[in-house]
Design brief:
The chain is α+β, with helices and mostly antiparallel strands. It has 3 domains: 250 residues, BirA Bifunctional Protein, domain 2; 64 residues; 94 residues, Anticodon-binding domain (Rossmann fold, 3-Layer(aba) Sandwich). It is 32% helix and 26% strand. It is built from 15 helices and 24 strands. It has a 7-stranded mixed beta sheet with strand order 4-10-11-17-14-13-12. Strands 21-20-22-23-24 form a 5-stranded mixed beta sheet, with helices on both faces. Strands 1-18-19 form a 3-stranded antiparallel beta sheet. A hairpin with a 5-residue loop joins strand 18 and strand 19. Helix 2 packs across helix 11 and helix 3 crosses helix 10. The radius of gyration is 26 Å and the shape is globular. The chain starts with 18 loop residues before the first strand and ends with a helix.
């Protein structure tokens, strides 16, 4: 008979004192390596050499990002009576992007190395030498800034310091959809540069087809595309990415009150998600576009420093006014009690699913040195976000009765939780694999299980083990994972 405690070379002498290792400069490299090795994130089209700034989510990655999106949707739509969902198309009429200003003003300033012809984003180049360029600067102002710092700017590829002047490069991705003859570059359609425009152009449809009343919101999760010339920092900045956005339509005089309320709510959302408050901070946009009333970002302390995670913006009535002007359709709200008509103001919250994914990975990635001198890497995901909630092991692979009983337990649990069956290698190695993908609970079926109808449940974070009756296992996990 085996002991009720599972003892291995890697895990013994419960309880253990754990000392977390400090972060180091290679943290990002370690996270990227783990993502590839454990099936979270793969470079896109890797067998052909990859495709810059485009990534694929692997089997565990897709579960994690789906759980992140589900948590956002629950917080936005399910828990708010006055917020409804939408899934607008990636392709929209080209006039949408003219009205929004993307065709004429959605651009990044670039410089080109005269030696190797590499193109670099000016804000990135300047940021690396400690100089920050305002996004609303003219080309003339940007080039003046570059000239003042020309001796400090170096091409990352060939080390040359000889660059062209900066020119602005439009980020919209063009398409020839529906145009099979003629020069489609003169009348292009576009892959959407952001998801919020689909919300604005559906404002009237939602208003006419549902019972919403101002203030109300429309939430959407969807893909967006930007022709980033120098995308960097793994999945933080991608050319194809996924946004989670909510646009709240409010009375003009109540806009800032609603805005401040959403700032508080979105900050608390990340704390509830399991993000440490010390890794979050606010950043205020000082030079606003002409129509904006306020703009703050929630920044997260990624391995490469504090960067934008979510933007919360008071946009005024600009968006609906522009689309009304370009479409010829009135995008007004009529108060049913007062008959007052007005164009609502908009409060926006916008966050990238990919950036949340990277923040959660960064927050969860832990290296621990155990009391016995061994080390382990563990992703301490909030349990509701973990890709796999429980892993089921037979103690020995070569004992059919253990494998059969483990399969029975797996079949009982898989309909309720995302589970994994694993019988490869010794228990210690299986624990380590599950630690690295962040599985909260490992369930082992041993010889005592056959006699007593119970199993050993091992907790990811404490590594403590307890015996639970198989008949009580589902309720036990529901309580622990809630």
């Amino acid at each position: 008979m085996t002991s009720n405690k599972i003892s291995t070379k890697e895990e013994k002498s419960q309880p253990r004192k754990i000392a977390s290792l400090t972060r180091d400069d290679s943290r990002m490299d370690k996270i990227i390596s783990l993502c590839k090795r454990r099936g979270f994130v793969f470079p896109s089209s890797e067998i052909y050499g990859g495709f810059a700034a485009v990534y694929d989510y692997g089997s565990y990655g897709v579960e994690l990002v789906n759980n992140i999106k589900a948590a956002w949707w629950k917080a936005m739509v399910q828990e708010n009576e006055n917020i409804v969902g939408l899934d607008s198309s990636i392709f929209m009429h080209p006039k949408v992007w003219q009205a929004s200003g993307h065709v004429s003003g959605f651009s990044d300033p670039l410089i080109e190395c005269k030696k190797c012809h590499a193109r670099l984003r000016v804000d990135h180049v300047l940021e690396e030498i400690g100089v920050f360029a305002d996004e609303k600067m003219s080309e003339e102002e940007i080039n003046k800034l570059l000239k003042e710092n020309k001796d400090k700017i170096e091409c990352a590829k060939c080390k040359s310091k000889n660059f062209t002047e900066a020119k602005k490069f439009n980020l919209l991705v063009q398409s020839n959809l529906g145009n099979f003859t003629g020069d489609w570059t003169k009348e292009p359609t576009y892959l959407r540069g952001e998801t919020c425009q689909g919300i604005y152009v559906n404002f009237k449809n939602v208003l006419d087809s549902s019972r919403v009343k101002v203030p109300f919101g429309i939430a959407q999760i969807g893909k967006a595309f930007r022709n980033e010339i120098t995308a960097r920092q793994f999945i933080f900045r991608k050319r194809e990415f996924e946004q989670m956005e909510m646009q709240m339509f409010v009375r003009p005089e109540e806009g800032m009150e609603v805005y401040e309320d959403w700032r508080k709510r979105r900050w608390q959302y990340y704390l509830d998600l399991g993000i440490s408050e010390k890794n979050l901070k606010w950043h205020q946009h000082e030079n606003l576009v002409f129509y904006a009333k306020a703009a703050w970002d929630i920044e997260y302390n990624f391995p490469f420093g504090f960067k934008e995670l979510e933007g919360i913006h008071a946009r005024g009535d600009y968006d609906l006014t522009q689309h009304s002007k370009f479409s010829g359709q009135k995008l007004e709200y009529q108060d049913s009690k007062t008959n007052e008509k007005y164009v609502p103001h908009i409060v926006e919250t916008s966050v990238g699913a990919d950036r949340t994914f990277l923040a959660v990975l960064t927050e969860s990635y832990t290296e621990e040195k155990l009391e016995d001198g061994s080390e382990r890497v563990v992703l301490k995901f909030p349990k509701k976000l973990a890709p796999i909630k429980a892993a089921i092991f037979p103690l020995l692979k070569n004992k059919p009765e253990l494998v059969q009983k483990a399969r029975e337990v797996y079949d009982v649990l898989k309909g309720e939780f995302m589970c994994e069956f694993d019988d490869n290698g010794n228990i210690g190695k299986r624990y380590r694999r599950q630690d690295e993908i962040g599985t909260p609970y490992c369930i082992t079926i041993d010889f005592d299980s056959l006699e007593n109808a119970d199993v050993t449940v091992r907790d990811r974070d404490t590594m403590k083990q307890e015996r639970i009756k198989i008949a009580e296992l589902k309720d036990y996990l529901k309580e622990k994972l809630s």
